[in-house]
Amino acid sequence: MIDARDTALIIEGGGTRNSYTAPAIMKLINEDVQFGWVGGVSAGAIHAVNMLSRDAERTHEAFTSFMGHPKIGGLRSLAMGRGLLNAEFMFQDRGGLLPFDIETFNANEATIHVEAVRADTGETVAFNNDRLTDEDFINLVIRCSSTMPMLMPMAYIDGAPYVDGALGDGGGLVIDAAEKAGYSKFLVLATKSRDYVREQASRPAMVRRMFPKYPEVARRTIERPDEYNRSKDRIIELEKEGRAYAFFPENMMVESTELKVPKLEANFAAGEEQLEREWPAIKAFLEG
């Protein structure tokens, strides 16, 4: 066991780009790393709950073979109103696929932190252990956190509409939340390269016209580049101080909406190669 309870694990989303970081989650599970805090949004939230349920096999399948299911999504699914990714199937009606170990999840002492954004108010809402105790509700929260505006149907909790947590505070990197929770040591699993800078919206007025019913979603979309870039700068600053280890992909091979299993498996293999290369340094950081 590696006791990293003084460390927060921060997991970036990015759709099926997270097939690249899946090997890192699997390694952390198999090496029995115990974190104090695990946070993620969007696809990163899937990794986060798998980390707490200690399910390496589920981590692999969720971003590779499961994406090849006929019901998973695509342009036909989008045209039929189910979304580019069929969130209802992915998160709430899988027909027994990707079984989840809720008992192990609830027994884990780490703090879980998943964020989603209220579409009506723009508020970033955090969901932690006190609410994430029931499998159905966990799936609903992850669905909300993963709901890409316009590309997926809106999801609701207690009648309130929610969208992608990546539009919230931090722009998809929950470093602020981890620091506010009292942590000063961080392992970050990113799905964008080290030199990536999110570009500003070139036509903010058009973004606003896209969301006439939800002006706060438009505002959050426009503000996201500043939030993301600020959070990333903070992570790199912490890295320079020796308080963070950031795993940035060096050979990302897919975009966020890739659904072809062979491409996802190849991306998984690329992430695994980099992870194994960096594991000695990651292990030393966690044990230090």
UniProtKB/TrEMBL annotation:
Active site residues per record: 42 (nucleophile), 164 (proton acceptor)
SUPFAM superfamilies found in the cross-reference section: FabD/lysophospholipase-like
Cross-referenced Gene3D superfamilies: Cytosolic phospholipase A2 catalytic domain
Keyword terms: Hydrolase, Lipid degradation, Lipid metabolism
Top-level taxonomic group: Bacteria
Renumbered ranges of motif DGA/G: 164-166
GO biological processes: lipid catabolic process
Membrane-spanning parts: none
Keyword Hydrolase attached: yes
Molecular function per GO: hydrolase activity
Record flagged with keyword Lipid metabolism: yes
GXSXG (motif): residue ranges: 40-44
Descriptive protein name: Patatin family protein
Organism of origin: Corynebacterium meitnerae
